[in-house]
UniProtKB/TrEMBL annotation, chains A, B:
Its cofactor is Mg(2+). It catalyses: Endonucleolytic cleavage at a junction such as a reciprocal single-stranded crossover between two homologous DNA duplexes (Holliday junction). Its main location: cytoplasm. This is Holliday junction resolvase RecU. The record marks K106 as: Transition state stabilizer. Belongs to the RecU family. It comes from Fructobacillus fructosus. Its EC number is 3.1.21.10. It is found in: Cytoplasm. Mg(2+) binds at T89, D91, D104, Q123. InterPro entries: Resolv_RecU, Restrct_endonuc-II-like, tRNA_endonuc-like_dom_sf. Binds 1 Mg(2+) ion per subunit. It comes from the Bacteria. Keywords: Cytoplasm, DNA damage, DNA recombination, DNA repair, Endonuclease, Hydrolase, Magnesium, Metal-binding, Nuclease.
């Protein structure tokens, strides 16, 4: 049966709902998340958010061009020739308290800069489109060596990309000033909605604009 | 280069923007759309909306479980064994004037009813989740024999599904009362955002609730 989710709705923040950890149904993610990849961490967080009615965010399937399919008798259709496509958008999107969220996940071992080559131009264009429609776009960037993950807002990404024409890198020092650290958490291990809350609060208070700002020089 | 979309933003409705047909860049869809399948029509509308900065809505890739991949020298990776997965969500989502839209496309040749078997339970559950997060969920249902397409809101779908436990069908007569006809249009041929506008206007005026309503008996 379909269950109409009850309880948590638009009025309530993700932060207040963290207090309820321990009562949900589909939990099962408690220890040993240190070594998880960023994508696994995001997927685990999304499962948690879905089970607790905090947000509905899914990873999009990998886009594939299917060329040949076999239909063996009495078995499932088998794809025998297919190729990976370049994704034309980001990997994650969904809805959180009435807001449209759209983001991609990026990992780097670099300790001092975020190299632009980690992002495709069409992803930057997509995030710019999202922001112009009133959506909340960002990257989740994990500096794996530092074990720190940041929410880097799309308007700043777009500005940096345009200024540097997609080349070079963003200094970690500068990125940290413009981004929101995803604070340590046990369950989910990457509770990135708290960083989204921080970003939304700044947008709503006018401390931040959802348009790209003029920025200083950087390498 | 990334172009930050200018011009049309939250304040302006899709309807007023239809007046601008002829100035966009990525158009190319003008004649002979009568025989198009619903999915092609939606994809063409989404291309149009994206090019004119009216909305950012994409079809999700078909979910596939990849089992074997070959990496031939000097060629692209080739998937040699993969299987279709059941989609766990709907096919389309995105952002329109700050609102999260989420929907699936359904076609039926039936002239008097919409059979429930066209929808999977997990899709109904997903749409219920979306609505509970403040998103706008619906089905676009095309009655191919009648050549009519309706926006059928998720709250009504969820109510019908729960009452009938996923069986039987919804009478076209009843569906028409609860749904929004996508009016005939030339470009795009299926301008479904006009039906979304009608639905949003009813939600905002309080003529409609985004919660499922009690409903009469039907077969």
């Amino acid at each position: 049966m379909v269950n109409y989710p009850k309880g948590v709705h638009q009025g309530q923040s993700a932060i207040s709902n963290q207090m309820k950890v321990g009562k949900g149904t589909k939990r099962g993610l408690t220890f040993g998340k240190r070594g998880m990849g960023l994508e696994d961490e995001i997927n685990a967080a999304n499962d948690y958010y879905l089970a607790d009615h905090l947000a509905v965010i899914h990873k999009k399937p990998t886009p594939v061009t299917i060329v040949k399919v076999d239909y063996p008798a009495r078995s499932a259709a088998k794809i025998t020739e297919a190729y990976f496509q370049k994704p034309s958008t980001t990997d994650y999107n969904g809805v959180y308290q009435g807001r449209y969220l759209d983001f991609d996940a990026k990992e780097t071992k670099n300790k001092t800069v975020f190299p632009m080559k980690n992002i495709h131009e069409h992803q930057v264009q997509h995030l710019a489109n999202v922001v112009s429609q009133g959506g909340i776009g960002f990257l989740l960037i994990k500096f794996t060596t530092l074990n720190q993950t940041y929410l880097y807002p799309a308007p700043e990404l777009v500005a940096a990309w345009m200024q540097q024409e997609g080349r070079g890198s963003i200094q970690l020092k500068e990125l940290v000033q413009q981004a929101y650290l995803v604070k340590a958490s046990l369950n989910p291990s990457l509770d990135y909605l708290t960083a989204v809350d921080d970003y939304l609060a700044d947008l709503e208070s006018g401390r931040r604009s959802d348009r790209p700002q003029a920025r200083g020089n950087h390498s």
